[in-house]
Amino acid sequence: MRHPLTLRTMLERARRYYPNREVVSRTATGIFRYTYKEYYERTRRLAAALSQLGVKKGTRVGTLAWNTHRHLEAYFAVPCMGATLHTINLRLPADHLVHVINHAGDQVLLVDDNLWPLVEAVRGRLETVQHFVIMGDGPLPETRIRPVHSYEELLANAPAGWSFPEDIDEWDEAGMCYSSATTGMPKGVVYAHRAIYLHSMAACMVDSVGVSEKDTVMPVVPMFHVNAWGMPFAAVWMGAKQVLPRTHPRRALRTDPE
Questions:
Q1: Mean pLDDT across the chain, nearest whole number?
Q2: What is the per-residue pLDDT across 108-130, written as a single tens digit (0 to 9) for each?
Q3: Which of 13, 140, 180, 181 could form a disulfide with 186 if both were Cys (CB 3.0 to 4.6 A apart)?
Q4: DSSP track, 31-45
Q5: Which residues constitute the domain of residue 148?
Q6: pTM above threshold 0.90
Q7: Residue 75 maps to which CATH number?
Q8: What DSSP element (H or E) covers 252?
């Protein structure tokens, strides 16, 4: 049987078989909880909102974000609409941040509100970004940068009934990240849908990590670093409960998954 190895099939499986399993996320205002059914709808709304900003197949969308439910939504919304998710290592020095964003050709940046100063510091050197989207619970910060959008407002105003395209090939770009540049400037690596699918399958094997529906998964590896070792993809696919503590040791210890 010809079964395309794409992220959309993984996302649809979570919606169909595990609609009531939870994602628990720590935000600046407290603990946020929702189900995979709600996660799916918000992911679809994000894709719809990005399409209104001009994102289409082949567009690179960058993220400057911690381990949160909004970052998890981007993990699937961007590649499932045919675009490429570029998870940016926020620990890079300013010169390297500018290089990877320009080299990747990111047209949209999704930025956690508490990381916005990183963008303010380098805005004048970014050559390709056309839209900035701030992810947070409160109002937009005061800034002279334009155009800036509220993530939650974009989702609230996204058109209803938007559907993911069905013409995504398993060899299409899904994600990319850059090295931390031990020599020279950072080097980029692109992941196809097929690569992420097979890596996730390996993570779910019993002799590997063995991710399954009965598990609660809390990725300690940052989602901006090599896809958090692929755990977010595998956990969504298998319907495992996820706990996302924003990658902070003390917050992680205080995050109650129950």
A1: 93
A2: 999 999 999 999 999 999 999 99
A3: 181
A4: EEEEEHHHHHHHHHH
A5: 7-254
A6: yes
A7: 3.40.50.12780
A8: helix 249-254
Q: What's the rounded Cα separation, in Å, for the pair 234 and 204?
A: 7
Which stretches of the chain drop beneath a pLDDT of 50? none
How many distinct structural domains can be found in the chain? 1
Cis peptide upstream of residue 147 (ω within 30 degrees of 0): yes
- The Cα 128–Cα 130 span in angstroms is 6
Q: How high is the pLDDT of residue 246? A: 75
Residue 203, domain member (yes or no): yes
**Residue with tokens 């100063």, as numbered in its chain:** 117
Residue 117: asked if its preceding bond is cis (omega within 30°), the reply is: no
Q: Which residue is listed with tokens 């990111």?
A: 106
Would 30 be classed as within a structural domain?
yes
- Element (DSSP H or E) covering residue 73: helix 69-80
Contact 28, 136 (CB under 8 A): yes
- Sort strands 131-135 and 30-35 into parallel, antiparallel or unpaired: unpaired
| CA nearest to 147, candidates 160, 129, 161, 163 | 129
CB 222 within 8 A of CB 248: no
Q: Both tokens of residue 73? A: 């939504």
Q: Which residues contact 246 (CB under 8 A, 6 or more apart)?
A: 25, 26, 27, 66, 67, 68
The amino acid sitting at 40 is Y
* Contact call for residues 105 and 86 (beta carbons, < 8 A): no
In the structure encoding, which two tokens stand for residue 134, read together? 């701030």
Q: What six digits make up the tokens of 89?
A: 């290592």
In a domain, 2, yes or no: no
Question: What string of DSSP letters covers 48-60?
Answer: HHHHHTT--TT-E
Residue pair 67/228 in contact (Cβ under 8 Å)? The answer is yes
